[in-house]
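Exercise 7. Given the encoded structure of a 179-residue chain, write a plausible sequence.
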């Protein structure tokens, strides 16, 4: 399906590109938000990634379009970090109907999860976030990160085992992972 859309876009069909954006925007922004801790920055990088994708469609050689797009986004993120040489600051919480106590607990739990994720080796962190924040398949993750599928499986298995261990020790709240 993606290859047909790519051909339509190359032929000038703007609606086909809209379908690509609508299909991949949410998983791409989720992945970038996990990487930056800043949803607005993630949206900006995603937008730049879609622009880069559009400009380079002639270079798409087939395979997983999602993996190709995520590779572009990862490169955009690396470029951004090089240019700014600083970590993105988290987006302030938007007002909600939840009580201040619940918001504080959620913020603390999210901080614990982010701290735990930060302890992971960089590539393992990327594999975990691509799988669970962006819902990528093993094949898409392998293609995006240029690693074998067996390595994706092994990294996810070890990470899930570590996560279960952290949850059993009470380091991370189970409810946080559901929300």
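Solution.
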């Amino acid at each position: 399906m993606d290859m047909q859309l790519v051909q339509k876009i190359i032929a000038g069909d703007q609606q086909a590109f809209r379908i690509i954006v609508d299909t991949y925007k949410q998983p791409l922004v989720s992945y970038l938000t996990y990487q930056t801790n800043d949803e607005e920055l993630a949206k900006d990088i995603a937008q730049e990634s879609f622009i880069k994708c559009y400009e380079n469609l002639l270079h798409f050689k087939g395979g997983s379009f999602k993996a190709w797009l995520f590779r572009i986004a990862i490169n955009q993120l690396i470029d951004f970090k090089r240019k700014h040489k600083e970590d993105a600051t988290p987006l302030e919480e938007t007002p909600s109907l939840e009580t201040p106590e619940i918001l504080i607990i959620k913020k603390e739990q999210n901080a614990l999860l982010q701290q735990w994720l930060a302890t992971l080796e960089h590539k393992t962190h990327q594999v975990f976030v691509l799988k669970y924040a962006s819902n990528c398949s093993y094949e898409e993750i392998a293609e995006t990160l240029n690693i074998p599928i067996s390595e994706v499986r092994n990294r996810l298995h070890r990470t899930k085992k570590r996560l279960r261990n952290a949850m059993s020790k009470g380091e991370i709240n189970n409810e946080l992972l559901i929300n």
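Remark. The radius of gyration is 18 Å. Students should compare their own answers with the one above.
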